[in-house]
Amino acid sequence: MVPMSTTPSAQARLLAVQGWLRRADQRHRWVLDLALMALVTATSVHDLVSPDSRGPFENIHQADLPMWALIALVAGMILPLWWRRRVPIAAFGAIAAVSLVQFGFGVWLQTGVSLLVAIYSVAAYGSLRALAWAYGITAVELSLAVFLLVPFGEPLVGLFLLLGTTAGAASIGLVVRTRGAYLNALEDRAAQLEIERDQRIRLTTATERSRVAREMHDIVGHNLAVMIGLADGAAVLAESRGERSGEPLRLIGETGRQALGELRRVLGVLRSEPTDEDGLSPQPGLADLDDLIARVRAAGPAISYRTTGDVRDLGGGVQLTIYRIVQEALTNTLKHAGTDTSATVLVDEDNGSVRISVTDTGSAYPQGPAGEPGHGLVGIRERAGLYGGEVVAGPRDQGGWLVDVVLHNRPAPEDR
């Protein structure tokens, strides 16, 4: 007696074999169809080489038919099996007609098993109404063969067995049809659940993004607005008193307003459905570098800026990357080198490659923990990486700091 513990593994192996057969049937149907036709053909070899054949209940003499006629009958019942999936009703009709012809000659070839395959195919791939008609036609045809056309020792018993076998073939086809529909329903359900899961994830993400955007707008935006108001008020007060701090305070207010505008632009991207109030304004490019450098000059550093090559023909994504790299480099200059330094900004375009060089005369910049670069240099490397670029950043031999970036002619996703 087989232990009960082996039953799950045997069932798993059976399911694995069944799954393999199903996948093979889907990928290489023609191979299985040819194999089935070859198997049915093998059953007819004895009928072709022997003058006598054992029918269902009697010895059937087939010597009265020439060999070519027997071969034609065998071919007529085998060849339609090739189309049993695509046109199961037509294949059944052809096989049933040839079967009736053989019964009319008083012949019962073993190739007649193809009629069972045809009934199975109608049940599995055809309509249920067609199956009812096919089974009725088969029942009439077998009744004529048993009672009138082919010698039977026990006609009633023979008809009962033949109709039962035909019903079994139809039942197997219905089981395969039902199982296929069930598996397809499971696959559709799984696909639907996956779509619903993705939709829930996107909805949750959009909700969280909107929440973060609201909080950033309420907290950071409020603080920036307060800072701008205080800077503008202090600038007006300083100018009314004739103090020299008025201009730096005015620049603080302008920088704060720019930061508030960029914050709103970023929040507009963060939200799933940007409103008109937080709509996207054009991203900065090379044309905006003059204003950027003018604001940095006003803070104290002496900055020279020049471009070479056809920089104005660069794509918007490349221009935005150049602007952000120069902005970050000059921010580091102000932060670490101070206001008494001088800096040089060079943007050079040559055969599709762009070189951005920012140098200053300040001291070496401090490193992060364990000598790691700061977030600004990391951001520069990430932006350059979008265009397959290389970044060199570090102290110069003659003093000061160098940020040298080369962008290659690789369009960013937004340029495509």
TrEMBL record:
UniProt KW Cytoplasm keyword: no
Transmembrane segments: 30-49, 65-83, 89-118, 130-150, 156-176
Residue ranges constituting the DUF7134 domain according to the UniProt record: 20-179
Domain Histidine kinase/HSP90-like ATPase residue range list: 318-405
Gene Ontology molecular function: any one: kinase activity
Pfam families reported for this sequence: DUF7134, HATPase_c, HisKA_3
Reactions that this protein is recorded to catalyse: ATP + protein L-histidine = ADP + protein N-phospho-L-histidine
Residues of the Signal transduction histidine kinase subgroup 3 dimerisation and phosphoacceptor domain: 208-273
UniProt EC number: 2.7.13.3
Keywords per UniProt: ATP-binding, Kinase, Membrane, Nucleotide-binding, Phosphoprotein, Transferase, Transmembrane, Transmembrane helix, Two-component regulatory system
Keyword DNA repair attributed: no
Protein known as: histidine kinase
Organism per entry: Winogradskya humida
